[in-house]
Amino acid sequence: MAWRGCVLKWVKTELIRSTNTTLRSSRDIPHYQQRYGFRQEAKRPDTKKGNVVQKTKVSPSEAGTQSLPPPPKVPRPSLFKPLMFTVGFTGCSFVRTAQDEEKSEKFSQDMTYWHDWWNKLSGFQRQLILLVSMVDDFWSSLSEGQKTVTGIIALNAVVLCCWRIPVMQRSMVKYFMSTPAAKTRCLPMVLSTFSHYSIFHMAANMYVLWTFSSEIVSILGREQFLAFYLSAGVISNMVSYTCKTATRSLHPSLGASGAVMAVLAAVFANVPEAKLGIILLPMVTFTAGNALKALIAMDTAGLVLGWRMFDHAVHLGGALFGVWYVAYGHKLIWRKREPLVKLWHEARSPVAGGSRSGGGPGVSGGPGPK
């Protein structure tokens, strides 16, 4: 039993020595895959028909003597463009900031100046400036059509005030009331279009004109609308003259009803499918075409039956002119006016020149009273 124990002890000693030798040799082999950070895929042995190529094992001493491949050379990047961008961007940022500071300082100085100036004003001057500012804001919010009729409304308001001046009553009756029995019959056909004696009459007409001003100006344009409005006033008064002469009812009349009816008829005829309503009865709606038919029918009935509350001949004449102008008059008059305008200027220029130089008879400024 003693010799068996000695043999086991000797075998264990030899196993320990062989294990240490193997570990020592494995430390001496360089690991190329770990050095470069990736593992190289092992090559598969090439097998041919009947021939097997075996890999030759490299001893640790030969592997240590082999030289490693040099690392690839990486070119050094240029930092010139990033440097220039940094300098330029930083400089522009500070320059822009300086400009903003200057503007803010200038704005603060201006605000201080205007604040001091405002404190020096009196209460009345401040209220006046605020009123002008409100008027300017209101004027900027208006459409082109509303701006156009603002002058017409202002002129009607001035004429209304003139009716309240006792000294001007005689002149107002002579020039601002139209009747075929008067000595002056032509000029009142235009001036009576801007004349109202009753405040309610003027307010009703101007409200309707203001309401449909944007539509009529968008259809005709500002210049054509002014020509249309003045022509409608004269033509409606001419229809009234004719009816009064035929019926021997020579009572005078005044107001913008004829021109306003022409505006209404032109808008309604252009968009007959538009929906309309009454101010006090918003639930009642009707089309523009039906409203135009009702107005023409009512004025025709008033003219035939001899109603005296309104001058129905003026209303009817204005409505018929508005319908006709939208349908045919725009093409016959406005689009073909250029040759007539040119002929008028050619005929007017030599006469005007002769009147200036020789003092002969020239063109008068307008029709005088007869």
UniProtKB/TrEMBL annotation:
Example GO biological process: signal peptide processing
Catalytic activity: Cleaves type-1 transmembrane domains using a catalytic dyad composed of serine and histidine that are contributed by different transmembrane domains
EC number: 3.4.21.105
An example molecular function term from Gene Ontology annotations: serine-type endopeptidase activity
GO CC annotations, alphabetized: mitochondrial inner membrane
Composition bias, Polar residues: 53-66
The Peptidase S54 rhomboid domain, residue ranges: 189-330
Membrane topology of this protein: Multi-pass membrane protein
Stretches with biased composition (Gly residues): 355-370
InterPro entries named among the record's database cross-references: Peptidase_S54_rhomboid_dom, Rhomboid-like_sf, Rhomboid_protease_S54
Leading EC class: hydrolase
Transmembrane segments: 194-213, 254-271, 278-297, 309-328
Compartments, as annotated in UniProt: Mitochondrion inner membrane
Protein name, per record: rhomboid protease
Taxon lineage: Eukaryota, Metazoa, Chordata, Craniata, Vertebrata
